[in-house]
Amino acid sequence: ISSFLMGSTDGAIHGLTKIVNAGTDSGKWDLVLVAEGYQSGQLTQFGTDARAVANALLATPPFTALAAAINVYKLDVSSTDSGADDPAACGGTGAVAKTFFDASFCTGGMRRFLRVNNDAVLAAVEAALPEFDAVVVLVNSILPGGLAEGQVAVSSIAGGPHTALHELGHTF
After folding, report:
1. pTM to 2 decimals?
2. Cβ atoms of residues 155 and 139 within 8 Å
3. Which ranges in 15-150 belong to alpha helices (H)?
4. Which of 35, 67, 121, 147 is deepest in the core (most CB within 10 A)?
5. Percent of the residues in the chain that have a pLDDT greater than 90, as a whole number
6. Is pLDDT of 64 > 50?
7. Is 54 left (phi over 0), alpha (psi -120 to 50) or beta?
8. Percent over 70 (pLDDT), the chain
9. Which residues, 6 or more positions from 85, have their beta carbon under 8 angstroms from its beta carbon?
10. Cα gap 2→4, rounded to integer Å
């Protein structure tokens, strides 16, 4: 885990819950939705946001036809602050949020490109569900944005579930 990660001093991992159950994980496609920038009192909202993404996924082809083979989990992770960093360098407010995975807009000089510490996300997901297939980090921010890098898709909740699905598509 990179040294720039605020991490465990800025939140906690609370647990993994299966929210779409197509059966045992063996032979299934297992998606993990991860909370970022949700304070502990906002994790109920994360549950609602995660279910909205799961519902949108299962209503979108080709996933509609594959629903019997898809499990969806949510990984509850609280952060000290809500939201994500919004650097002034990209026209943002300059706000710095203390979040578990160090979410920040302005990746590559583009305000809408929202990034997290992928290594920390993957470590948390692997510890909770070693045989996951895909990861989407939902960032509790009213600013629209997202990004997919490697195995990790990131989406703010501002764009709704379809932004999360769009970024998930990039991970394929």
Report:
1. 0.94
2. yes
3. 43-58, 118-128
4. 35
5. 91
6. yes
7. alpha
8. 95
9. 95, 96, 97, 102, 103, 104, 105, 106
10. 5
Query: How confident is the model over 94-101, as a mean pLDDT?
Result: 96
User: What is the C-alpha separation between 144 and 157, in angstroms, rounded?
Assistant: 7
Helices (H) and strands (E) counted in the chain, each on its own, are 3, 6
Task: Please state, in angstroms and rounded to a whole number, the distance separating the CA atoms of residues 58 and 68.
Answer: 10
Q: How many CB atoms lie within 10 A of CB 84?
A: 30
Q: How far apart are CA 155 and CA 157, in angstroms?
A: 6
Q: How many C-alpha atoms does 142 have within 13 Å on its Cβ side?
A: 3
The confidence score (pLDDT) of residue 8 equals 61
Helices assigned H by DSSP within 20-140: 43-58, 118-128
Structure tokens given for 104 = 């920040």
Give me the residues paired with residue 23 across strands. Answer: none
What are the structure tokens assigned to 92, written together? 């943002």
Helix/strand/coil (H, E, C) string of 140-172?
Answer: CCCCCCEEEECCEEEEEHHHCHHHHHHHHHHHC
25 three-state secondary structure: coil
Tally Cβ neighbours within 10 Å of residue 15. 11
